[in-house]
Specification:
One of its GO terms (biological process) is phosphorelay signal transduction system. The protein has 116 residues and is mostly helical. Helix content is 82%, strand content 0%. It has one domain: Four Helix Bundle (Hemerythrin (Met), subunit A), CATH 1.20.120. The protein is built from six helices and no strands.
Length: 116
Amino acid sequence: MSDLHLDNNVLVALQDVMEDEYPVLLDTFLADSDERLRSLQHALQAADAQALRLAAHSFKGSCSNMGAPLLAGLCKQLEEAARREQLDAAPGLIEQVEREFAIVRILFRAERQRYR
């Protein structure tokens, strides 16, 4: 299942580059992602398509860099909806992003446990 949600090749490359700091990277991504989810919700509540687009774009890049392709893809869909100012699609997309992140969070926490 984790192969669907995380790209192991990316994780191996990150481990090679980050070495002992790899667990810190995982922790930082998880904390940063919680903040990004809040930003998505705030932009939606404010009906601010530009802020939503920027938040989704930023989250997409972070997810892509961390090897979470499904999550990155959902963020891309949300970014595109915001770019077209289709805010009616945003609640459902944000819900999908949150659900996928919940899975990614579990997988990254498990990954993090390997380095305790």
